[in-house]
Fold this sequence. Notes:
With about 220 residues, the chain is α/β, with parallel strands linked by helices. It has helices spanning about 10-25, 40-55, 65-70, 100-115, 125-130, 135-150, 165-175, 200-210, and strands spanning about 5, 25-35, 60-65, 85, 90, 120, 155-160.
Amino acid sequence: MMKAVCLLSGGMDSATAAYLAKEMGYSILALHTTYGQRTAGREERCAEKIASLLGAEEFIKVNLGYLSVFGGSSLTDPSIGIDSQKIHQGLPDTYVPFRNANLLAVATSFAETRRADAIFIGVQASDYAGYPDCRPEFIQAFRQVIETGTAEDTHIELMAPFVLMNKRQIIAKGLELGVPYEHTWSCYRNEDVACGLCTSCQYRLEAFREAGVPDPIDYVQV
Length: 222
């Protein structure tokens, strides 16, 4: 059976990408990373639950704590308020500089070691509007990095199936696939009950409203 390393953040997009990989016939090698983000505990629990429900062959956790040492993002630096300001020439304060390149580098090492056929990442259009490492151009460039930087007999396809989609479209696909969104987490601020106010909560709530289905998680404020 073909194998795919699936980057599972604990969020709805990565969960949907992993369920899509499963539907496409891949055996799942789940990879979860922490990097000092505020809601790391809840995200890890959600990622592990999704991996379990998918029957993943492996669930690997990797600590990229050096990203929090660098700072520069409200997700990793407690001195910066969530959604409080723009940084790096207008980027959202939640941007973690070059995070996806770090995630994909780890995923590539994992995939090459396990002789996996693909890597799935859930980046999508509403992110790349603000995050440079979510753009289609970035994904295409990293495909070349994988091709150039791995052994000659290694062939790993980088799959970003949602890169040109919005969250409503992703949810619609996820509902078809039976993704258990009650086991996903999007809030940037809280680990117990989602705040409903941060941009990530707002994007999620709007997407569920547009999809015409209720969001299965609880919020402090809707």
